[in-house]
Design a protein that fits this description.
3 domains; alpha/beta; 8-stranded parallel beta barrel; globular; TIM Barrel; 20 helices; Rossmann fold; FAD/NAD(P)-binding domain; 5-stranded parallel β-sheet; about 625 residues
Amino acid sequence: MLKFRNEFIMAPIKTGYNDGMGNVTPRHLLFYTKRAEYLGAIILEPLYLDKRLREIPTQIGIDSDEKIAGLTKLNEAIHEKGCSVIAHLNHPGRMANPKIPGNIYWSSVAKACENGGKTPIAIDQEKMAIVREQFVAAARRAEQAKFDAIELQFGHGYLLAQFLSPAVNTRTDEYGGSFSNRMKFPLEILSAVKDATSLPIIARISGDEMILNGLSITDMIAFSKKLKEASVEAIHVSAGTICTSPPWFFQHMFVPKGKTWALASELKQNVALPIIFVGQVNTTMDIDFLLRDKKADFIAIGRALVADPDFIGKYLGKVKGTIMPCLACVEGCLGGVKKGKGLQCLVNPTVDKNNLEDPLTPVIKKKKYAVIGGGVAGMEAACILKERGHDVDLFEKNTLGGQFRYAHLTPKKKSMEKLIPAFIERLTTDQVSIIHKEANANDLLGKYDAAIIATGSRPKIPDIKGLEKYYWSEIMEEDKLPSGKKIMIIGGGLIGVDIATALIQKGNQVILVKRSTDFGTHMEMIAKNLSLKMLKEKNTVFSDHTFIQEINSSTVRAIREEKEIVFEGIDAYVVSVGMESYRPLAKELEGKMPVHIIGDAREVGDAQAAIRSAFELACSL
């Protein structure tokens, strides 16, 4: 019987905060305890069963008795907040990280993941016994470390799913063929764990693998009935596989919200067990819908608690303030872990600052600051300064949001539109004065203690003969978006590809021209792959190694691989060859008053970097 104080559970998210030895660190303690205050339970990040089975080098381990003390310390800290803790046990099988030296790769069959990875060994009875013992030993350590429950991973394309799934398991022995045979080894693991511990067990499954010939909800209903017979306490319903359908596994903004909820609902109607709903639960409306319409027994929330640790506290009315929204972009969370920096967040710059107990210390001496520019960096700086106790005026001549106003105009990125309204709500709540004009030196000198320049960046314009009329991201605005035209985009990085995906939705023929080869440079990998796939399906022309020599009205002459090529019938041109910092006011104020430069005005980067630079400066003043 699961006994949590409420129905809200933090889903397992890899943090990458480990010391490389699998131990709990102070960063883990601060990260989890900061989110434990109003939750019923936290499922810790996946705990590796053997150091040769790691998914990331900086994962927490439960592979030896030496890990028990650290895990106990973490669990006791979470318990002090009134929150239960769940150990997520998973064997990755063939999905162990191929870049980690010493890793081993076992699976139901000797078949590598189609999207890359090592060819695994098809495990025999001897290796099955080793796997069973790894799970059993981990379960016993979990009980010793004061976990309140265990979650076993049967989904997401990991080892146990590699036995369950007909897309992977082609064995011809007693562990392959029929579904009852394919269930056999996973159920043996469950039975062994049940015998080893008195802790309640939750099963995590993929309600649908979202691949051809993969597991379906019909299969998982049948499997879940077997789980119930084996005394599982609840079923946690996700979707996808890390191998062949990662956008579903990560619940990326490119996949529709609600599919996992529908799968969980169908399972709930057919299996008499508590069901945990999960997947892009990132607004209060989502929670209301799941509780009211889906009658969810439990709701698992992952990245929304990364973006705002007090998300549930604010939902319950116990914490005041604006909910900073998860955008489902995975740029900071997945991106930070993949880069080896640890879990980060585009909207929450405090996530990877867990060594700072409270960076928002009240000011000792109140000052008056002018923030110039109302993009994401300027808004973040204004809010933090005001929340710390300073007086702040925010100057913005146009609409608040800066370049981020264009982020949600590309297909599949609608979730991005939540950020600017959240910032505006914070500005209003914080009572930041917004002055709608272009600031000049006379507006600032003698009136403020310092100026913070957040005027962002502007597009670089290539020196091309005949390039006179052109667009940038504003072409995606509803009143400017053309249809049925032939459009050349000069530059094929992140912005160029985003603009292209917007243009093809209106039946435009798009030509992407780039001097190098990598289209979609600096894009998050899932968004990049899916965006390029969309473009190719619409017959977008990708012209790499192309150097434009001259534009003459609708004709373009260029050099590609030392040969002249000609593009004809071009109706419009879009320039997207990069950005350059824009800060003319900083030079005008230099030597006359203290000046600080943040965001793209200081160094061109992405939204996450801009928000972080603003936060760090505002905390230091």
